[in-house]
Amino acid sequence: MRKLIVVVSGVTLLLSALALAVSGTAASPPPKVPSLPTMPAAFYGTVTLDGASVPDGTSVTALINGTVYSKTKAKRNDQDMVYLISIPGDDPATPAKEGGVEGDIVTFQVGGYAATQQAQWHSGTQTLTNLTASAPSNGKKTPPGKLR
Q1: Which of 46, 81, 122, 147 counts the most CB atoms within 10 A of its CB?
Q2: pTM: predicted TM-score of the whole model, two decimal places
Q3: Domain-embedded: residue 123
Q4: 19 occurs within a structural domain
Q5: Which long-range contacts (CB under 8 A, 24 or more apart) does 87-90 make?
């Protein structure tokens, strides 16, 4: 009988300690885990102006809603002039817009002239977008948009 009382008391003590440990853990909130940053979207391809390859170093600009989010320069690759541009993703934890969000329309400028092509921004993608632009007969360049 004495062994039974000791065993029951031991089990009761163990269960009480376990209940206290569980209730203490349940009462404290889980630690806040920071969200992962949104992956950028990349665009690449050939670059022409008025039907010809652009000069080496010609600027290529990517805009969303008139705001410039990225700039690069065209480079020679064999016989073609090519570009590669990466547009950051927006940080949803801030009120400012730092980059693209799913489905945003990206417009491009080549040497300051609007490219005919547009593309959709999608996180983590690499999209082939060959750019063609034409200088207007009056020679005026496209307004550059606001810088982010």
Answers
A1: 81
A2: 0.73
A3: yes
A4: no
A5: 87/40, 87/41, 87/42, 87/43, 87/62, 87/121, 88/38, 88/40, 89/37, 89/38, 89/39, 89/40, 89/41, 89/123, 90/38
